Structures are given as C-alpha cells and as structure tokens.
DNA sequence: CGGAATTTTGACGATGCTCAACAACGGTGG
DNA sequence: CCACCGTTGTTGAGCATCGTCAAAATTCCG
C-alpha cells in the first residue's frame, strides 16, 4: 500500500459523491459494484463532456482509455480505404466505450449529441475489472448483447429493402422512447441527421428522405415541423411495414 | 464434496484423456485452463459429431447447452419473419457456440461441413466459468473479437458492392488458408455452397456466380474443376479489387 | 434578413434481383 | 460402365430498386 495524500483522499471522496448521484449508477457497469467498491473505480474515472460532432477516438489511434456513457449518444463508425462510411453501432447512456483487447482501434467513435462520459485509463481499468468478477461478468453480458444487436443489423443490411430499414429504425426509436401520448402518437426524438441515418442503414441521404416522406404519405408518421423529431401515429402499422409477414 | 463413484472417476479420466489430445486444446477456451483444472470441465463436456447440413440450434429454442467447435465449420443465421436469411457469423475450430445471457435463442446454428464439437450443459458450464476467471476473460476477448468481425461485415453489407464483397471473401479465406504453394497460387477450400456464400454476403446465388466468373476472367482465381475449391492466382490483385483505394 | 447547411424532390441510370433455360456434377441403379 | 435424375451452378434477358446528379425548398443561425 502506498500512502495516500490528502489530495487523493479529497479526490476520491468527491468522485464517489459524483458516482452516487450519477445518472447511470444503476445501468452502467458500475451497477455491479457496491458503494464501497466504487471508491477505487471512481478514483481513476474522470468526467468528460463532449460537444455534438466531436470525435472521441479515431480508427488507427492507440487504445489508451475506455469509458461509460453517462448522457447523450455516440456513433461507432467503420470505413473503407476510399472513404465510404458505415455506422456499426450506437452507444447510449450506460453503454461501455472501447475495444478492450485491441492495441490499435479499428473504429471511430463520435458524439452524435452533446455527451457526458466517465473515462478510465486503460491499465487502471483493466486492473479494476480483473478484481471485480461481477463487473467483468456484466461486461461480458453487455458485449454479447452488442453482438446480438450487430447481428440483427447485419440481417437488415443484407436482406431488407430501404422501406423496411427506415420503418424498422423509426420503430426501434419509438420502442425506446416509451409509451404513447394522450392522442395515441409516440413522440420520437431522432438524435442524428439524415446523413447519419443513411450511414446507419446502408442507404443514401436521398433514399432515406424519400422513404420518410413515403411513411408520412402512408399516414404512419408525421413531423413536428421545424424539428428533427417525428411523431409515430401508427406504431402497429409501422411494424407491419418493417416486418412483412 | 459428494462421493465419487468408480464410474464417475473412469469418465473423468477418459474425458481428460480426450482433452489432452484435443485438436483445440490450445486454441479454445480450454487453453486458459491448466491440465488439472480441465478435469472438472471435461467431466461435464460431451463430444458430438454432426453431419453437414444438420441444425445444431433453432432460433426460438430454449438455450440449454453451449459448445466449443473442435473441427469443421458452423454457420450462424438470422432470418426475417417472411423467410429471408442472412448468415451473421461463421464458427471454426476453437470458437465458442451459444448465446449466453439469452433464454430463447434468436439465431439458428447449422453445420456447414461435418463438425465435431464439445458441448456443455448450460448451468454446469456457467458454474465452471464463474470459478475460472482466466476462462471468463478469454471468453470476453473472443466475444469482443466476434463483435469486431461482425462490425467489419456490417461495413461490407452496407457499403461495398458485389464485386468487392466476393473478392474480399475469397481473400479472407486465402489469408486463413496460409502460405502460397510452389507455383504461387494459394489453394482455398470454400466450405459452403453458392447459396450459403450469397446468404453470407447479402447477395443472390446468381450474383455470386457472376462475380466469381468475373474474377476468373480477370485472371485472379481459377477453379479446380469438379471441386468447390478455388486457387487464388493473384492475392495482391484480389485485395486491390476488394479494397479499392 | 441573408447566407450556409440540410433536406426534399425530380430525372435518369447502373447495379443487382427475378425469372428462366441450360450445363455440370454426383449419386443410384440397371 | 453408363444412362438417368435430382441437385447445384452458370448464363442470359428484362426489370425494379436504389444510387447519382442536379435543382429547389426549407431550416438554421448569426
């Protein structure tokens, strides 16, 4: 044991106070730890706020940190040598950020909206993970969930047409958004541009736009004008478009 | 400790003997265990041989077992409600089979070739995993590798054309196959039908066939006639087709 | 209000899918 | 050993979907 300076103690106390009121205390990897275990982890974690559009990690960078998303949303993108881009994952509050067993990142991570995250130096995090089996188990669980999600998306990219992809995407956002409003509509906030939707769905901006107006013409959705958000009028109908029997 | 019957002891001895000469003793999850730790795992594992084409697990089944691939190859497929199919993963010797934190499987696993595997009852395997941190760490590593692989494939499905997908696939197989032969060609065995290649690449049988004959016409590959295998003549050129600058 | 950025809409064309015929292969049985 | 037949793979013609290019419309933001 090394001696702990007053500054260290103060830092730890402050950090664990931050953790205690953290928005993702019960959903991130941290939820696998008891309050008293959290002290060590919080001592190595540092809160960061990143503005929309900013890159967190570039493909090709040496992996030096991992993180948990606290609020906001990130995109994970892969690209071809000649610059075509595909979004291969979205990260929301509670999700883990980083390629753990890779020295050089193969993916780029970018903030879609302003995002708060809790980031950890690589070596220190790996040490903590090694000494908290429940946390490691939870990371395994989350990684397998990401894998299932990636596979579901591979099915869409390989076998669904533009209409099904767009309808399915809006439908997923609607599920995440929760319960219907008074008038039966579900208000869905779309945390990305048309270009990013296109990169996610493996389409072009124009095709996404056309499909959205198609869904609107079919009476399944509308747009709160002047905003990026949309209102799902008929979520059952939307699901039928996304998943034809 | 419960008393161990003679039969139990005999089984364990036999099983660990099987493990000792196992083809994937040094590449599967088992490689994280010392010989003496392997006894408990081998006691719950059972060798199975599955003929080509046979389904291991159906989507919708309750998950009751996991497994390691010992030899052969498996495909993992997802499908739409109306029956379109996409291969979302391939499993080779040493790979782990199963959706660990899911009660009901969302994916179907099928043998591409005759396949030997070592399968474990769910509960028993989870118990063993929990008591061997190195094995759990290794499973995490493999799962993250699968995730990276899935993401690479999402890039192809979303953003690469038919020619690039087929050339890339043959190129990958060639890498896996190893070093060039005397005449400079690399003999590549393709462990699947055209239909399965199509399901993997998100194309149709006809498009795959056309692209292959295109690569042959370009002098990049040839076919040992009467066989499914192919000979890569110009792996550099193949890579150039798959990854245009 | 004005200019840049984003989104929508339109016209056109290319890529890859559908449908169909044909060829090659493999196993079976005479 | 070869004829037969089912399966798998190849090739061709036509077409639908989605991408490309271009312009108009809308939104954003100073």
UniProtKB/TrEMBL annotation, chains A, B:
Tell me the superkingdom of the source. Bacteria
Gene3D superfamilies reported in the protein's UniProt record: Jelly Rolls, Winged helix-like DNA-binding domain superfamily/Winged helix DNA-binding domain
Per the record's keyword annotation, is Ribosomal protein included, yes or no?
no
Q: Which UniProt keywords apply?
A: DNA-binding, Transcription, Transcription regulation
Q: In the UniProt record, does the keyword Transcription regulation occur? A: yes
A Pfam entry, by short name: HTH_Crp_2
Q: Which SUPFAM superfamilies match?
A: cAMP-binding domain-like, Winged helix' DNA-binding domain
Domain HTH crp-type: from-to ranges: 160-236
Q: Domain named Cyclic nucleotide-binding: which ranges?
A: 29-146
InterPro entries associated with the record:
cNMP-bd_dom (IPR000595), cNMP-bd_dom_sf (IPR018490), Env_Response_Regulators (IPR050397), HTH_CRP (IPR012318), RmlC-like_jellyroll (IPR014710), Tscrpt_reg_HTH_Crp-type_CS (IPR018335), WH-like_DNA-bd_sf (IPR036388), WH_DNA-bd_sf (IPR036390)
Query: What is the protein name for this chain?
Result: Transcriptional regulator
């Amino acid at each position: 044991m090394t001696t702990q300076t007053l500054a260290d103690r103060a830092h730890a106390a402050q950090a664990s106070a931050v953790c205690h009121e953290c928005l993702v205390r019960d959903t991130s990897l941290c939820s696998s730890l008891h309050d008293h275990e959290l002290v060590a982890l919080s001592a190595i974690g540092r809160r960061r706020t990143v503005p929309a559009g900013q890159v967190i990690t570039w493909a090709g960078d040496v992996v030096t940190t991992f993180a948990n998303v606290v609020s906001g949303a990130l995109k994970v993108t892969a690209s071809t040598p000649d610059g075509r881009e595909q979004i291969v994952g979205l990260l929301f509050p509670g999700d883990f950020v980083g390629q753990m067993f890779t020295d050089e990142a193969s993916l780029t991570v970018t903030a879609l909206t302003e995002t708060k995250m809790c980031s950890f130096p690589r070596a220190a995090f790996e040490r903590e993970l090694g000494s908290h089996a429940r946390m490691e188990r939870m990371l395994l669980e989350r990684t397998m969930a990401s894998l299932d999600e990636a596979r579901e998306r591979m099915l869409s990219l390989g076998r669904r047409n533009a209409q099904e992809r767009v309808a399915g995407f809006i439908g997923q956002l609607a599920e995440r958004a929760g319960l219907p409003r008074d008038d039966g509509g579900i208000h869905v906030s779309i945390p990305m541009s048309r270009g990013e939707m296109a990169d996610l769905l493996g389409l072009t901006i124009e095709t996404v736009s056309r499909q959205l107006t198609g869904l609107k013409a079919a009476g399944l959705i509308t747009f709160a004008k002047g905003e990026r958000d949309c209102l799902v009028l008929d979520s059952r109908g939307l699901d039928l478009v996304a998943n034809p029997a």
